[in-house]
Amino acid sequence: MKRMVLVTLALLVASPFVISAQPRGKQAPQSFASFWLKFKAAVASGDKEALAPMTELPFLYEGKELNKPAFIKEFGTIFDRRVQKCFPRAKPVKDGDYFAISCGEAIFMFKKVNGEYRFVEIGVND
Fold it and tell me: What is the pTM of this model?
């Protein structure tokens, strides 16, 4: 009987250490589909502040490295009306490590960076 009480006490004392060593709130990996829904909604609503953290900054645009304030300032040029009309209908295409969205002459490129998808580049559709 004493032995059972000692084992029970030892388990009770050790259990907080075992529990605290396990990862908390381990999130499921982000899917591109969930990222794309948030990204295109932010473009459609003009939510520049929401787009910045979904973009790999500094962002290279027309030969300039854009930090967050510069990216926000260029929002209307990067995501002009033509792009804003294109995004709701656009179908992402997997291309190696990237997902690509084609809107006219521009190809918007997305890639996983540190485990999360980010808007990383604009290419030319030739």
Answer: 0.74
